[in-house]
Automatic annotation (TrEMBL):
<feature type="transmembrane region" description="Helical">
    <location>
        <begin position="116"/>
        <end position="137"/>
    </location>
</feature>
<feature type="transmembrane region" description="Helical">
    <location>
        <begin position="241"/>
        <end position="260"/>
    </location>
</feature>
<feature type="transmembrane region" description="Helical">
    <location>
        <begin position="58"/>
        <end position="79"/>
    </location>
</feature>
<keyword id="KW-0812">Transmembrane</keyword>
<protein>
    <submittedName>
        <fullName>Multidrug resistance protein B</fullName>
    </submittedName>
</protein>
<feature type="transmembrane region" description="Helical">
    <location>
        <begin position="210"/>
        <end position="229"/>
    </location>
</feature>
<dbReference type="GO" id="GO:0022857">
    <property type="term" value="F:transmembrane transporter activity"/>
</dbReference>
<dbReference type="InterPro" id="IPR020846">
    <property type="entry name" value="MFS_dom"/>
</dbReference>
<feature type="transmembrane region" description="Helical">
    <location>
        <begin position="21"/>
        <end position="46"/>
    </location>
</feature>
<dbReference type="InterPro" id="IPR036259">
    <property type="entry name" value="MFS_trans_sf"/>
</dbReference>
<keyword id="KW-0813">Transport</keyword>
<feature type="transmembrane region" description="Helical">
    <location>
        <begin position="409"/>
        <end position="429"/>
    </location>
</feature>
<feature type="domain" description="Major facilitator superfamily (MFS) profile">
    <location>
        <begin position="25"/>
        <end position="512"/>
    </location>
</feature>
<feature type="region of interest" description="Disordered">
    <location>
        <begin position="516"/>
        <end position="540"/>
    </location>
</feature>
<feature type="transmembrane region" description="Helical">
    <location>
        <begin position="312"/>
        <end position="333"/>
    </location>
</feature>
<dbReference type="GO" id="GO:0005886">
    <property type="term" value="C:plasma membrane"/>
</dbReference>
<feature type="transmembrane region" description="Helical">
    <location>
        <begin position="486"/>
        <end position="507"/>
    </location>
</feature>
């Protein structure tokens, strides 16, 4: 990951407003980010469909999300080095093409293994869209308007939670699951044409060396560790070699990476930045929050689909209040981040999230939809007031020459947190559901015992199954057990959100100026002073 000073033809803008030239470039970046973020939320409503389509456990199909976010984390640090070497426009268009091709391949998958593989390919492209897009926008707008810049980039984050589940649900209901990926093909082609016309011409420059050895330790280490965790429900015990083997090797690789990362001059992740107390507090707050919120967020549509028997479209519509809540607070939070210390705003936002989460810890098979949708709206309000302020606070603690390395660190932690959250929450839910009472003499197509919860969930989508049962109360008992399993999983998420208050208590409560423009030419080895103003290129 690199950061370098780019000579600007004109003085850095001082106005708080984003002019037409910046908005033209922003349109390209927002379109790419919308594709990447929509694909996460679209797939969230499809997980139960994947379960039935590929006859796989929830922990297994959750790897369509975990693999995607791990791929995002892999290419984030690679993006800055490649942007310098090949140019931002060329690399951004390559990322768009890779994401679009990956989407097309996902639609052709015949097994869950193939789908996970193609999702990883998608993630390799999607992971470069946001960091390269951020670099392009920061170069165009300058660092004085980072809060408003974040607000613009927040547009796809607002639309994704609202439009993604609805779009995914509608496509699955009226066509098939394949179309949640095929829809990206026309969008990707339009984005490629737009990028070719709107983005400024590339000017590649010599780049720092890239830490390939670090990448070969961190990415496989995380993947192996999480794979071991995700196999626990099927294995049933940590003593199984398929569980502890990958976990042990993965943990060893991650520890080796941490030890090694202090040696190179330009490491994959600059862990030395954790000496900055404010960066450490902001990163830790975000990491714990992401594990809880993103991990549990995958389970909301699954509850509506599997326990309540809703269609995928209705499940998507029921998720909309969360996105609407975020839409209300995210633009306000983006503006306040430049004026009010985050230590005074984020704790209130976390309280809203905690209040919303509590409702889901009390789930049963017929909890009021009014209560659930209201709670999702309150959680959305809290989410919109948490993410952007914390990330902005982390960036503001850094000087110009540190900002690229710091933003890389923060963003890769965000993706790792999402991967950990998806894997852990899906494992907890699967393990809880596996505890349901088995039905004597009844097995599935593979000869595995059928549980009351499993049969009740299947009966919600195929009512004829319930009519064939000698004991009608079996479905009711199964649904009650499934609802309790979801509630138990949400208790874990609730506890993690509560734990977020610990690092959040140390967020800055006094207004401090940004250090992004502190560096003067010649501060870093090899810098040559000139008469042009310098714009830090932020690789997000």
């Amino acid at each position: 990951m690199t950061q370098q000073s780019v000579a600007a033809p004109q003085p850095v803008p001082t106005s708080d407003k984003l002019d037409a030239a910046v908005l033209k470039v922003a349109g390209v970046v927002v379109l790419g980010a919308l594709m990447s973020i929509l694909d996460v939320t679209v797939v969230s409503v499809a997980l139960p469909t994947f379960q039935s389509e590929f006859d796989a456990s929830y922990a297994r199909v959750a790897w369509t999300m975990t693999g995607y976010t791990l791929a995002l984390a892999t290419v984030i640090p690679l993006s800055g080095w490649a942007a310098d070497r090949f140019g931002t426009k060329r690399l951004y268009m390559m990322a768009l093409a890779l994401f679009t091709i990956g989407s097309g391949l996902c639609a052709t998958a015949d097994t869950i293994g193939e789908l996970i593989t193609y999702r990883v390919l998608q993630g390799l492209g999607g992971g470069m869209l946001m960091p390269i897009g951020m670099a392009i926008m920061t170069r165009a707008a300058g660092p004085n308007r980072i809060g408003r810049l974040m607000a613009v980039l927040g547009i796809p984050m607002l639309l994704g939670p609202i439009g993604g589940p609805i779009l995914g649900g509608w496509l699955i209901d009226v066509a098939s699951w394949h179309w949640i990926f095929l829809i990206n093909l026309p969008i990707g082609i339009v984005a490629l044409v737009y990028a070719q016309l709107a983005l400024p011409k590339d000017s590649p420059q010599p780049s720092e060396s890239f830490d390939f050895l670090g990448m070969l330790m961190l990415s496989p280490g995380l993947a192996l560790f999480l794979y071991g965790v995700s196999t626990l429900p099927e294995a049933g015990t940590f003593a199984d070699a398929e569980v502890w083997g990958p976990m042990l090797v993965g943990a060893a690789l991650v520890v080796a990476f941490v030890v090694y990362s202090f040696k190179p001059r330009h490491p994959l992740l600059d862990l030395r930045l954790f000496r900055n107390r404010r960066l450490t507090v902001a990163a830790l707050t975000m990491f714990v929050f992401i594990i809880a919120f993103m991990g549990a967020g995958l389970l909301f549509p699954s509850y509506f689909l599997q326990v309540r028997g809703e269609s995928t479209l209705h499940a998507g519509l029921l998720m909309a209040p969360q996105g609407i809540g975020a839409m209300v607070t995210m633009p306000i939070a983006g503006m306040l981040a430049d004026k009010v210390p985050v230590g005074r705003t984020v704790p209130f936002a976390l309280l809203l999230i905690l209040a919303g989460f509590f409702t889901f810890t009390q789930l049963d098979a017929d909890t009021s939809y009014v209560l659930l949708c209201g709670s999702l709206f309150v959680m959305g309000l809290g989410m919109g007031g948490t993410m952007m302020p914390v990330m902005t606070s982390a960036l503001k603690t850094l000087t110009g020459h540190e900002v690229a390395r710091g933003s890389t660190l923060v963003n890769i932690l965000q993706q790792i947190g999402g991967s950990v959250g998806a894997a852990v929450m899906s494992v907890i839910l699967t393990n809880e559901l596996n505890g349901s009472r088995q039905i004597p003499g009844l097995t599935d197509e593979n000869g595995n015992p059928v549980t009351e919860a499993g049969l009740a969930i299947a009966a919600q989508q195929r009512p004829e199954l319930a009519q064939q049962l000698p004991d009608p109360s079996l479905v009711e008992r199964g649904l009650d057990f499934a609802a309790n399993s979801f509630a138990t999983t949400f208790w874990v998420a609730f506890a993690l959100v509560a734990a977020t208050f610990i690092p959040a208590a140390f967020l800055p409560r006094r207004r401090e100026r940004s250090h992004l423009l502190d560096d003067q030419p010649g501060d870093q080895p090899g810098d040559q002073p000139d008469d042009q103003p310098k714009i830090p290129v932020i690789v997000h």
